[in-house]
């Protein structure tokens, strides 16, 4: 089995995914990066190269894959399991923002669910078996405060995140016997490109910062083997109500 811990990060080309990927590489993880943008993945890779320097075994593996292409996801994770024999972390992060509740066609709504819920299910389905086999692993499901508290004008997004949080909570209980931890991370507005679509706009300085998510992951990884955290809700001051 590969000697370094393995971390899969989806949506690793920018924002939260990029910050977590670079941070875990700094902490000694072999990072496996998934994103649709090969250019963005190369930029993340460049940052990681600057950190690991001569430790070539810690250079990231890049998978420029559309997460809704389930066959490609399955083939990619099978290749990872075959190559390394382990997956220690899944940071299940990629997704899209959408506004409106009943404003979309059924097909457009299906696309939101496909990207924000079904794709995450695909990564879980293909990753959990090797964690079960090794009786270890940590799954971070990057959901949203919108998966806990509904709000008007974004029912499509909110419902996809409610589903993701529900799946995460079920797996939290189900996988504990295999010593696999599952935590739903539920931040409100994070300073990323996606949050530029927030209406009314919020100052970037008043948002949660991507490094706050990284530091939350780092904190959770320091807990003892028998400490399990179902979910963490992170508020920015302007979203308190």
User: How are the strands of the biggest sheet laid out side by side?
Assistant: 3-2-1-4-5-6-7
Mean pLDDT: 92
Helical content stands at 40-55%
- Rg for CA atoms: 17 Å
Number of strands: 7
Oligomer: single chain
Structural class: alpha/beta
Alpha carbon gap, first and last residue: 48 Å
Number of discrete helical segments? 6
Instruction: Choose one word for the global shape.
Output: globular
Proportion of β residues?
15-25%
Major sheet: 7 strands, parallel
- H/E series: EHEHEHEHEHEHE
What low-confidence regions span 5 or more consecutive residues with pLDDT below 50?
Answer: none
Question: What is shown here, in short?
Answer:
By secondary structure, the chain is of the alpha/beta class. It has six helices and seven strands. It is 43% helix and 15% strand.
Structural account:
- By secondary structure, the protein is an alpha/beta fold.
- The protein has helices at residues 15-26, 38-52, 70-84, 106-134, 155-174, 210-222, and strands spanning 6-10, 30-35, 61-64, 89-92, 137-142, 180-187, 231-234.
- Helices cover 43% and strands 15% of the residues.
- It has a 7-stranded parallel β-sheet, with helices on both faces.
- 42% of the residues are buried.
- The mean pLDDT is 92.
């Amino acid at each position: 089995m590969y000697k370094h811990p393995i971390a899969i990060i989806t949506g690793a080309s920018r924002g939260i995914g990029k910050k977590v990927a670079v941070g875990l590489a700094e902490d000694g993880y072999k990072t496996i990066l998934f994103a649709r943008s090969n250019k963005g993945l190369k930029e993340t890779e460049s940052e990681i190269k600057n950190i690991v320097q001569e430790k070539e075994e810690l250079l990231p593996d890049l998978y420029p894959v559309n997460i809704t292409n389930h066959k490609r996801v399955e083939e990619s994770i099978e290749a990872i399991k075959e190559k390394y024999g382990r997956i220690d972390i899944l940071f299940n992060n990629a997704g899209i923002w959408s506004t409106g509740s009943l404003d979309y066609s059924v097909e457009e709504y299906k696309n939101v669910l496909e990207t924000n819920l079904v794709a995450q299910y695909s990564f879980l389905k293909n990753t959990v078996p090797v964690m079960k086999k090794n009786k270890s692993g940590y799954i971070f499901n990057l959901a949203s405060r919108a998966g806990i508290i509904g709000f008007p004008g974004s029912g499509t997004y909110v419902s996809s995140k409610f589903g993701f949080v529900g799946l995460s909570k079920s797996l939290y209980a189900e996988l504990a016997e295999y010593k696999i931890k599952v935590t739903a991370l539920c931040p409100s507005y994070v300073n990323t490109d996606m949050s530029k679509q927030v209406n009314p706009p919020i100052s970037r300085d008043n948002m949660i910062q991507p490094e706050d998510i990284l530091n939350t992951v780092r904190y959770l990884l320091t807990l003892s083997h028998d400490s399990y955290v179902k979910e963490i809700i992170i508020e920015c001051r302007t979203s308190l109500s």
